[in-house]
Design brief:
By secondary structure, the chain is mainly beta. It is built from 11 helices and 44 strands. The chain is elongated and about 135 Å long.
Amino acid sequence: MFGWKRIIAVLIGISVWCTELKAQQYKVSGTVRDAHSQEIIPFATLQFDGTQTGMVSNAEGNFLFELNVIPSDSLLVRVMGYTILKMPVDRTLKEQTVNFEVTRSDVSLKTYEIKANVNFALILLKQIVKHKPENNYNRLDNYKYEVYNKLELDMKNLNKEKLSKNRFTKPFAFILNNIDSTSEDKPFLPIFLTESLSDYYFQSSPRKTKEIIKAARTSGIDNESVTKFLGGMYQNINVYNNFIPVFDKQFVSPIHHNGAFYYDYKIADTQYISNQRFIKLNFTPKRKGENTFIGDIWVHDTTYAVMKATMSVPKDANINFVRRVSMVQEFRQLPDSSWFLYKDKFVADFWAPSPKPGKTFDFIGRKSTTYDNVITNDTAATNIFGDKKYPEAVVVLDSARVRKESFWNDNRPDSLSKNEVGIYKMIDTLQRMPLFQKYSNTVRFLATGYKPFGPIEWGPYYYLFSQNRLEGFRLRLDLGTTPKFNKDLYLYGYLAYGFKDNVYKGKMSALWLLKRHPRMYLYGAYTKDLDNGSHYYDEVGTDNIFTLAIRKGGIPQKFLMIQEQRLEFFKEYYSGFSHQITLLHKQARPYEPLPTAEFYPKTVSSRDPLTTTEVEVKLRWAFHEQFLEGNYYRISLGSKYPITELKLAAGIPGILNSGQQYQRVSLSVSDYVKLPPFGSLYYNVFGGKIFGTVPYTSLEVHPGNEIYYYNKYAFNMMNRFEFLSDQYVGFNVEHTIGNGIFGYIPLIKKLKWRQFWTAKGVVGSLSESNKQLNLNNGYPFRTLQGNPYLEVGTGIENIFKFLRVDFIWRVAPDVLPDEPANKKFGVFGSFKLQF
C-alpha cells in the first residue's frame, strides 16, 4: 500500500513540474564581457532591479533566466572592480538577449574593506609569491610551442556621413563599407591587420631563445624587420615577473614579491571549474599615479598557480597618447599538472592630435596571441639551437610571406571576422590608388623630409637653406636613389653653395649591401665641405634651417674645410659581433679664429702636416641588438646587454702627402638599464689614447655645444674646441625617473611632467710635445690635466607631451676671468616624443 501511495505522489509531482515548465514563458539570456578588452567575465552576479530574482553567470560568462513572469523592466550586473551596469528588459518578449559590457572602476578596494584581525587576501598573496618559482613556466629547463599572433588597428568614433562628404576622404568612400560596430554608438573602421604563425623555442641554461616565423602577412607593410617584431618573441609578457612592460614603461605586477606595498587586495569570489577550486583576488593601487594596475586574478587553490589575470592601466597613469590599456593572460594545465601559458590579449586605446583645436584622432589596437602544441623538457625544444639552418634569434622563412589562403584557414586557431577579411582587400585597393599614394607620399615627406621621384629622391628638406658667418646664405640640394633604382646599391650626394664665400661644396657616396643578414657592405665617399659639428645620426648640427635662431650669444662659429676620401668594409656576425675596416685620407683647412694651416709649416719632406692617411679597425659587440630596417640603412633599437666598441687606428705618413704619424686606441661601453620602479638609466663610459705628436685636428677635441638645443652626446656647457687631450677617460649618465617629485604636487601631477637628472664628466691630458705644438699658436686651447670637466643637470620632460627642458650647471673647471658668467649655467630645450 505504501508503495502505491509513493508512486501516486511522484506522478502528481511530475505533473505539477510539467505544468510549471509549460507556464515558463519567458527567457532572458546573454553574456557578460569587459567593455574594453571584450573578454568574458565569469561568475558575475545578475539581478532584476528591485527584486530578489537573480543568478550568477557561468564560467563562460553566459546566463539564462527561465521565468514565468519577468519581475522587473531592468536587469543589472555586479562585478567587484567594475561599475554596476543596468540594462532595460522588455517584459512582453518571450525570448530576448541582453548582453552586458561592464567598465572597469578605479574605486579603491578600501571601499569594500571589512574590519578583521586577519587579511586572508594577503595570506593568499603570500602563498602565490611563495609558489612563483615552481609555477613560472620559465623555470622549465626547456620548452617549445606554436604561437599565433593577430594584431589589428582600428579608427574609432567615425562619422560615416561626414567622411562620405569630405572632399579629402570622399574618393575613399568605399572603405566605409568596412565600418563595424560593437554597438550602434561605437562604430570603428579596421585599417590595419597582421598575422603571424611561429614556432618558439626556449632553453634556460645557457639561456637561449629562437623563433621560426612560418607564416606572416601584414596589410600595407612588407618589411622583414617589422615582421620579426610582430612575431611572438618581442611581445611576450609574464605575470609572474615582478615588472610587466607597457609601452616601454615598467608596471608593477599584481603578484610582485612586495605586492602589498603597491596594492590593496581583496578575495572577491570562490568557484569550482572542472572539479577544481579557484579563488578570485581583486587588486587596486594603493596610491594614484604609480605604475600599477587595477584588476583581478583567478588562482588555483592547490598549486597557487595563476589561471587567469586581467589587468587594466588606471586613467591617471603617466603614459602618453594612450587612453586605456587592458591586458589578459590565461594559463591552462598540462597533462603533468603544471600550468603553462595559453592566451594573451592586449587592448589599447590611442589618441593623436588633430589639426582642429580640441579634436583628436582615436584608434584602438587589439593584439591576441594563442599558444598551442606545448612540449616541455624535451630534446625537441633544444635541437633547434644546434641547427645551422637557423642562425638568427628570429628567423623569417622564405615561404612565410607567400602563404596561400588555404594555409591560413587550416592553421589559424580562429577564423577571421568579415571585417578582418575585408582589411586585406581594402589595403590592397588603396595601395593601387594614385590619389592615396599622393596623400601617403605627402605625409612621408613632412615626417621624414624625403620626397621620392621614381628611382630618385630629394631630401631632407631641412638642409635646403641655412646661414653662417663664413658662407652667408647657404643653399644645398640633396639627391639619392631609391630601391626602384637598385635594392642593394644606394647612391647619394649633395651640392651646396655659399653666396658670401662663392664656393661650391658637396659630397658623393655609394653604399653596396653585399648581404643583409648578417649585414655586410662596402661604403665609399668623397666629401669637401665645412665641418658642421655633428657626429651622430640624431645630433643637431649647424647645417640646417632650425639652428639659425638658437645659437649661444657671443661665441664665434668655428669652421674647418674638410676634404675627405673614405672607404669602409663592414661585416657582422649572428652573435652580435662586427668589425669594420676603414681607409681614410683627410685634409683639414681651418678658418680663423681657429689656428690656420700657417701655424703648422710643412716638414722637410714637403708633407702636409694637416693631411692624414689613416687605417682604422672597429670591433663591436652588441649581443641580441635589435634593428628597424630601412631600404638601405637601419636604426638600432638597442640591446638588453651592454654594447662595447673598440677602435684601433694608425696614421701612416708619406702616403698621398700625409704628414702625420700616430696610433690611436679608444674604448666605450654603453647600455640602457631598466630600474623599475625608478625609471631607466643610460650610461656610457669611454676612454682613449693617442700616441704621437699631431695637430689639434687629429687630437681628441672634446665635443662641446654652442646652440641651445640639448645635445645628448656633447658637454653642453663646453664650447667647441675648448679642450684638447691625447689621453682621456669620461662618462655620460642620464637617469629618467618618471613622475619623481611631480607625482606629489597635485596641480602639476595632472600635467604628467617627468623628471630626470644627468651627469657628464671627462678628465684628460696632453703630452709635452703636443702642448708645444698646439698651445702656442694664439688660440686659447685648454687641457683637463689635474682639473677634470664636470657638468650636472636636471629638468622636465613630457611638457605638452613632446618638449624637454634641461637645466645644466658647469661644476668644473672654473670659467676664465674674461669668459661670460653664462658659461656656468644654461637652459636648453629639445624634442622628445615618447609614450
